[in-house]
Amino acid sequence: MAIVRLTGRRLAGAWGRGRQLSTKYSELTVGIPKETYELERRVAGTPATVALLKKAGFKDVVIETGAGLGASYGDSDYVAKGASIGSSGDAFGADVVVKVRPPSEAEVAALKGNGQTLISFAYPAINKALIEALASKKQTLFAMDCIPRTLSRGQTYDALSSQANIAGYRSVVEASNEFGRFFAGQMTAAGKVAPAKVLVLGGGVAGLAAIQAAKNMGAIVRGFDVRAAAAEQIEAMGASFLRVDFEEEGSGAGGYAKEMSAEWHAAAREMLTKQCAEVDVVISTALIPGRKAPILVTKEMVGVMGAGSVTVDLAAEAGGNVETTVADRKIVTENGVTCLGYTDLPSRLARTSSDLYSNNATKFLLSIGPFTTKIKDEFEIDYDDDCVRPMLVLDKGELAWPPPPPAPPAAKKDVEGAAAAAAAETVEKTAVPLSPFDEYLRSSLRASAVAATFLGLGSGIDPPILATFALSTIVGYYTVFDVVPALHSPLMAVTNAISGMTALGGLTLVGGGAIPATTAELFGAGATALSAVNIVGGFLVTKKMLDLFKRPDDPDEHPELYAIPVVGTLGAYGAAGLAGAGDLSSVVSLMSGICCIGGIAGLSSQKTARLGNVLGQSGVAIGLGATLGALQPDFATSLQIAGLLGLGGAAGYGIASRVGPTELPQTVAAFHSLVGIAAAATAVGEYAHVVSDAKAMDTATAASLYLATWIGGITATGSVVAFGKLNGNLASAPLALPGRDYLNVGMGAASVGAMGVFLSNPSPATGFAALTAATGLSGALGLHMTASIGGADMPVVITVLNSYSGWALCAEGFMLDSPLLTIVGALIGSSGAILTHIMCEAMNRDIFNVILGGYGTTAKAPTASAGGYQGEHAEIDVDATAALLKEASSVIIVPGYGLAVAKAQYAVAEIAKMLNDSGVKTRFAIHPVAGRMPGQLNVLLAEAGVPYDVVFEMEEINDDFPDTDLALVIGANDTANSAAVEDPDSIIAGMPVIEVWKAKQSIFMKRTMGSGYAGADNPVFYKPNNAMLLGDAKKTCDALRNKIASGE
Question: Which stretches make up the Alanine dehydrogenase/pyridine nucleotide transhydrogenase N-terminal domain (predicted)?
Fold first, then answer.
């Protein structure tokens, strides 16, 4: 039967033909026969792929006896993975036969046909007789050489590339074996050895592999390709790109090269002749699909090469690029040039080439049906599958190749209409750029609002304290911008500790002797004790975190010596007071404020961070001392104060001592709640203390008192809800009550109304009622707004609460006319606000939306889209992962909160050290909001001993992924989720993420395939260059570490 008659029975239709009837895997047997082609040692199935097929549910996998011996796989290796060993007839009689080489006449006869499926190299353009023979048996044939190489999914099944990569590498090995010198130049006592000069013709997969291998051996490498686009790739591999002095583009369809004109060939011959006279080794890789290989190196060019030179022709099987090539032979020309025409280069690395080819073929087989039908265990040919259809050559004997072209683009009218609609939608969504006049007008109006605010404040607040507030806010603003992201967790811990200066307000109310007697004194005692918890616990947590960043070679530190200036300052202050030398309390308070500023500024770098913590402690100690000196309590009251500070400090020490890096976020949230309660308690107590003195209650004092109560209430309840979400006591999903925004607006309006009543100088009963309303409304508002924010935004919520605690302290400073509290409060409030801004930028969140509890938005539900959320995912085991890590030249590890929960950081640190010690460049990529608190993962890695100079922030390392061999994601999901970039309907749309999918290979280590903390599905799981390593992170990391350490 002639091929021409077959074309008359071409399969009707194009991409819309539909699907065949499906067949369950459990009804199918896969056969792997022994390759019989001369010199062929590869095998189409390995024990690893047998295990994949058995796991997928295939009835049986039949391996011909001895099929894997050439690749060093014995029959027992296959049996151990569940295969059956049979005869050649058994393998060829299977429902699906997988081969490497196109079948010979004898092998065609052995096939049973009648719809049987064959997956193999076939080269239908040049093997017409083979296609006719298979068609006569009503065979179904998929050609592994017909993969659509420009399709990203197709790269997983691209056997041409995987085998060409091996051939390119092996060609250099063969050339070096025949070449009589080193490839690398050397300077020795015996003389100088010049490096070899290698010319590689062809910039495809094989050519680039040859360039890389030759460069790694130290040769001077030049590359040439007819496609101009190949120049960048060749030069990126470190070779010089040669250009022909003739303008003609050589790129053809499908990513291949096209045949060039006679004029171009003439110019190329002139250039190559000169090059052949200069180089020592020529490796040619130029092939054109379905055509005889072009002659690039003529006999005359070989004739000008020096004696001892070598040519390796990877196109020998297709006629050769070198005119002197003889297929499967090594010849030596008259002028001493060795010409290699081996056609079995992949077979000379049989095990590796078999592993790669069998992976290509097996994954392709497993995709026929499930990738588009989403039914995992059914084989079904889908004509609309843009990867399967081009590889289908025969369908039950009917010719299906070449495939019809894809559907034509939409009509021009439709395109224009769609473009117009898209443009209109874009105009609606995109704000019109402001004119210069409008920009200046908005800026001037903002400045006017600021001026009006200061004028309003100035009417009731003394100018000195107002100046203190303004300058402290500016200092806090600029201080935080200098803090490196790795230190954001210690920064929040130290500001939390400093915000314990609410104790100063509480101390002003303490009295009554050893036991408080009045309502005001009770509130003051409570505020003092709670603040002490914050001070001691916060500074201890900060110290523990910063100590984790210390390196073995860091110089010794002696922070205890800073007790000298602290004790000296307080001693001099006390002595001056006793001697009647004047009141130094304002000067000492100023010193306290400066130390607190220095404490936060010290967190800007690793070198000064621990000093910053000491300065913060010094500032708080001096502030407490200055306050006690100004109050001059009697002996009994001093005992009460000592008891309150001691009790609170002991509680803080006990809590902080038990906290590990994993519990840091919820601990900080809990400490924030104490600050809020202390601020509110101090404000209510102060009102109880001064309510009978109308002169002490001017408008500014009353407003500050009310705001301290209101902000303290929001901080307290909001922090409790944040603690519950972070600790797992509350669901992470946002609360979406009906009329959520109206509830918030209503409570806000009621709070303003209660403030108006309070400022009207009412009776004590009415004033207490207004403060009670403020406490209740602010508490409810903090609870509801925080509960309305999703768990994924909790890192931002913590920074917001951090800022709130500062503003509460600042309001307390205005209330008590205390410059020190105003300095510290404005410093913490502004620094927390800027940190919130930084976090919102990192998560692409609107800062006002977060602060106002998601105002104006509706909570997005997790969505599954057609963009890759469903489909077949690849799984990998520990052994294969360890092999990939050891074989890589560059690895980036992306840790997430799952690593923290599993406490796997120690094993990961050892893995990174072993890889770096063995020459694998291994680094860590940290997302700004990885974990449940900014900087938490940096602290975890530091705890495990990972040097901070191999830990990089997302924006520092994201551009490196395309050049990275392997990205290993451990316990992270949302921060490495491509849906943020690819799916505008995703709950995390627009959030900057770590782009692990751009690495050559990515591996996600997770317990399950479930979504992350934000509830968003991750399409990276289903990308062709990704594999899932499922299991417990701790056990898996330990196993991975042990495997790498064993050296197996």
Answer: 31-167
